[in-house]
Every structure is written in C-alpha cells, then in structure tokens.
Design goal:
The complex is a heterodimer. Chain A is mostly beta strands. Chain A has a single domain, classed as Aromatic compound dioxygenase (Protocatechuate 3,4-Dioxygenase, subunit A). Helices cover 6% and strands 31% of the residues of chain A. In chain A, strands 1, 2, 3, 4, 5, 6, 7, 8 and 9 form a nine-stranded mixed sheet that branches. The longest helix of chain A is centred in the N-terminal third of the chain and has 10 residues. Chain A is globular. Chain B has two helices and twelve strands. At the A-B interface, helix 1, strand 5 and strand 10 of A face strand 1, strand 3, strand 4, strand 9 and helix 2 of B. Strand 10 of chain A pairs parallel with strand 1 of chain B.
C-alpha cells in the first residue's frame, strides 16, 4: 500500500492564505516580456451551478521569469458567478502543447484535479501527444475557444455530459 | 520522476454522499492516466523573496499575543523514495482557538481574535523540514448535517519540487473524539491513510515552558527523482 500523505478538501476558507499568489498574478503585477493571452471561464458543478469558492492554479513554464514569486505559476480564485481568468504567456505557434497545466481545488472536491488547456486555433493539435491519449469525444473539454484578439474562453465542468477531462500522470 | 498508481482507498472518495457538497462537485469519470509531459516534471521553484519575515510565526501578527494554546508544528517532507523534498513551498491556514477563520465567508458565531489571522508560509530546508509557530485551532460547526463539527485541523498546501507533486491536505491532532463523526476525514476509506493525517505529540519539539510540539511528516507522490544538477 502506498504510504503517501492523502488529500483533503481545500475548503471554503483558503483565500486569505493563498492571496499572495493571486496578487502576484495580477496582470499589472506579472511582468512578462513576450506576448500574453487572457483565458477566462466559469467553473460549474454537476447541476450546472457556478462554483463560487474554487481555486484555480495554472502552471505555464513557458512564462517562467525570475522576477516572479513562483516563476510560471498563477493562481485565481473563482468569483461569485464561478468566473475566473488568467493572463499567461503565449506559446509559439503550432506547438500542440497545452497553453497551461491547470489544477482545480474547491470545497467539496476532496482531491485536486489536474487538467490542461489547449487553444482551439493551435495548428499542432492533431499532433498533440496529450490530446491523442484522450478519447476523441472528450477532447473538446480541453480546448479554449477564441473570443477576441488574444482572448479565449475555457470552462471547467466537474460533472455531466461535458465533464472536463482530468488527468493522473504516470 | 515517476508516479506509481495510487491504490483505491488511499485517496478520499470523490463522491462521498455523507459529505454533501461532494455529490455535485466530485468528477464521475475516472482520471485519465497518461504519460507525464515534460512540463509536469519540471522544477517549480519559489523565489526566496516570497517569504516575509514572520511568515512562519502566526502568533506575531497583531498588537499583542493571540488567545489560545501556543504550539509549534514541524515535520519533514519526503518523496515516495524517502528522499527529502527540499526548498519547496508550504502554505498553512487555520481557524483561531475559538474555531473561527479570518475569512469574510465564515459565519460561525465565535469571536475573531484581532491578533491571529491564521495564515503562514515557509520553504522546506535541506532535510525537507518545515517548522511554524501557531495557536492550536478549535473545532467548529459547518452545517453539513445535524451537530456537524470539524475536528481541529490545520490546512496544508504543498508544492513539492515539481508540478505533479502538488498536494492540499489537512493535519489533525491526536485522539480527537470528532474523527468518527467527520465525513471529510471518513471520506478516506483506508484507515492507515487516515491516520497518516494525524500529527504526533512530540516532546522533542516541545519548547521549554513556551509551547508544546507536534510533528507531522508528509510524503508526496513521485519516485526516482533526478538528483539536482543532472
């Protein structure tokens, strides 16, 4: 039997403790040299109700710069309507790589969930090593839809027809 | 670094009806186990300036001493090979001695303590050790069911050395009578896994007449870490 320390929910009261990283990830606080993209979305439960106390984290190693508190790391709490947004460094085109590796935490979620976000207009999607391991019918849950210049929409669904694909890594 | 499959029972059940909010929030599809892409195993390193001078002493953030029992909590963070996880960020947060969080959404009718906010952070040292000084948190009611009271606990957030080691959990105190009635604790099927979340009283880490010591060691996922510099 594995001897790892198991997980427990983040609960509803993490925000004060984790605020330093939210502040550090504000668009005016994140100093990045390259072009950035804004990914916005909403996190929903199995009834389609917004989750208003989630913590969303993003790992974007392409945006790691030494002046950041934790280079490449972003954190955003969801708002009262379940909304969140992240500004991250763009990937160079046609990569087939995720724009960001995302970790989802929430009250009622007893273990964090790992997922990834690709851009729908990434020309390398067909060659993506990760996407090719995902059943075709579920791949759309990992694609952010372009909504404007440098802006994308990506929602998280914890359950249901469009349940987001969550990963365990080997 | 490799991540062995975790046997059923070690992690809590994602949908565990006695903990009501899991029912609509826990994913129903099994996690998709895939080859770890490179970025998942890249080092995640906090800058030293992340730490403020008193981040590891939660009792010195007001104009006076907080109320309650001052304690020290310490432990080592390891990977699954037993190697220390060094220079990794640990965040903690907790209720005050009356069971009230410094948080706008906490409606528990227990007093706030102006001298205790209950948040801290630190980096593990070369032995993987963390250590912080705090006030023993109180139990609190949470409305999940009739007479639902959480056992006293401290929330831990660990970054490990690589992204895929991330963990958020809760540390409990020995012999809490509320364990048997707490669906969050009981959502973990495996008894040994539950017990690994319970800290141990430590005379060794007790500081004279100032504070009792509690030890809580943590094992993060991952083995076969590449030595630094290779």
């Amino acid at each position: 039997m594995s001897k790892i320390t198991t997980s427990q929910t983040i609960g509803p009261f993490s925000h004060e403790a984790l605020q330093w990283a939210v502040d550090a990830a504000r668009p005016d606080a994140v100093q990045v040299d390259g072009p950035t993209l804004l990914v916005s979305g909403t996190i929903y439960d199995g009834d389609g109700a917004p989750i208003n106390d989630a913590q969303i984290e993003a790992w974007t190693p392409q945006g790691a710069e030494p002046q950041q508190m934790v280079p490449g790391f972003r954190r955003a709490p969801s708002g009262e309507q379940g909304e969140f947004s992240m500004r991250v460094t763009a990937l160079t085109g046609g990569s087939g790589e995720p724009l960001m590796y995302v970790t989802v935490f929430a009250r009622g979620l007893v273990k964090h969930q790992f997922t990834v976000v690709f851009l729908e207009d990434d020309l390398g999607l067909a060659q993506s090593c990760i996407l090719n391991q995902v059943p075709e019918a579920r791949r759309a849950t990992l694609l952010a839809r372009k909504t404007g210049d440098g802006q994308y929409r990506w929602d998280i669904r914890m359950q249901g027809e469009q349940e987001t694909v969550f990963f365990d890594y080997v | 670094m490799k991540f062995d499959l975790i046997e059923p029972g070690v992690y809590p059940e994602l949908v565990y009806p006695p903990y009501k909010s899991t029912v609509k929030r826990g994913p129903l599809q099994p996690m998709l186990r895939i080859e770890a892409p490179l970025p998942v195993t890249q080092n995640i390193v906090a800058a030293p300036h992340i730490l403020l001078p008193n981040d590891a002493d939660l009792t010195v953030h007001g104009n006076g001493e907080p109320l309650g029992e001052k304690i020290v909590v310490t432990g080592r963070v390891f990977d699954e090979d037993g190697k220390p996880v060094r220079n990794s960020l640990v965040e903690v947060w907790q209720a005050n001695s009356a069971g009230r969080y410094w948080h706008k959404k906490d409606q528990h009718a227990a007093p706030l303590d102006p001298n205790f906010h209950g948040v801290g952070k630190m980096l593990t040292d070369d032995d993987g050790r963390y250590r912080f000084v705090t006030i023993k948190p109180g139990p609190y009611p949470w409305g999940n069911h009739d007479k639902a009271w959480r056992p006293a606990h401290i929330h831990f957030s660990l970054f490990g050395n690589i992204y895929a080691q991330r963990l958020v959990t809760q540390m409990y105190f020995p012999n809490d009578p509320l364990f048997d009635y707490d669906p969050i604790f009981q959502s973990i099927p495996d008894e040994a896994a539950r017990q690994r979340l319970v800290s141990r009283f430590s005379l060794e880490h007790t500081v004279g007449s100032e504070m009792l010591g509690y030890e809580f060691n943590i094992v993060l996922r991952g083995r076969n870490a590449t030595p630094m510099g290779l």
